[in-house]
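Input protein
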Amino acid sequence: MESYQTAAAPGNIKVTTAVTSAHRLLPASRRPSRLSTTQREKDWENDSTTSSTPSNTEYTGPKLYKEPSAKSNKHIIQNALAHCCLAGKVNEGQKNKILDEMEKCQANNFLVLFRDAGCQFRSVYTYCPETEEIIKLAGIGPKSITPKMIEALYKYNSDRKQFSRIPAKTMSASVDAVTIASHLWQNKKQGTPKKHAK
């Protein structure tokens, strides 16, 4: 059997609740609280806001995420390799190998190394703007490139699917490709194999 009780809630709102006969049989210590629904909601809101209030102290633990120093050009270089430098079935194996290496790499900035002004692809390098380190990731060329070795700088145009030489003299994160001085390319002369006397 149910009976109804009316209680005044804060703000002079009358709340009517159904009370079952079983409810009356419970000892007072086991009966549900007689707080109104709105009062319980207010208590819940007060409890939750204290834990979500922003504190004035900053996190002093280890830095888990490092903001990239510059916008990554990874996708630009990947597009350049796929549509310009290593386009076509003939280059598919080399292209896929280099793209896999780029995916594994944590670097934000990459550079393409050309043989000369003809923009003939040789390799892909990682570039760190803070330290100006240029380290070979995959391909043919020196293990590292210093700013003094660089002859020309290039930017990739995704719409035209081609590289354009830029007039800048210094490296930056906005550069997509470089050429190095021609004397730095080692010409490997193949000698004739020596015949061994019998």
Summary: The chain is about 25% helix and 30% strand. The chain has two domains: 2-40, 74-183. The CA atoms of residues 119 and 163 lie 8 Å apart. The first strand starts at residue 2 and ends at 9.
